[in-house]
Design brief:
Elements (H helix, E strand, L loop, with lengths): L5 E7 L5 H8 L10 E8 L5 H12 L8 E5 L16 E3 L2
Parallel strand pairs: 1-2, 2-3
Antiparallel strand pairs: 3-4
Helix pairs in contact: 1-2
Length: 94
């Protein structure tokens, strides 16, 4: 356990992202198993409800944040997983 352990979940065709957000909410950081869990939500367009939903969940689970739940606007054909020569598409800051 000498290095930071991070788990990254890719939620494809995520819609507003509730499934990915709940995954992060139900798995708070637990050293030494893992330091952090991050979800990348991927869909064609980020709906307005995404940031509202994330903010509501973060009131109860403060580890659900812009850092741990990121939305990437991309088609599945254009999306590449991290570690596979980077990512395509745009990660949203909302």
């Amino acid at each position: 356990y000498g290095s930071k352990q991070e788990i990254v979940v890719h939620d494809l065709c995520s819609g507003h992202g509730l499934t990915g957000m709940l995954f992060v909410a139900c798995n708070p950081p637990r050293p030494p198993l893992f330091e952090s869990l991050r979800t990348i939500l991927v869909d064609h367009k980020e709906p307005r409800s995404h940031s509202v939903l994330r903010d509501c969940i973060s009131e109860i689970c403060p580890w659900v944040s812009k850092d741990t739940v990121q939305f990437m606007e991309s088609s599945l054909q254009e999306y590449k997983l991290e570690g596979d020569n980077g990512t395509k598409g745009n990660i949203s800051d909302s």
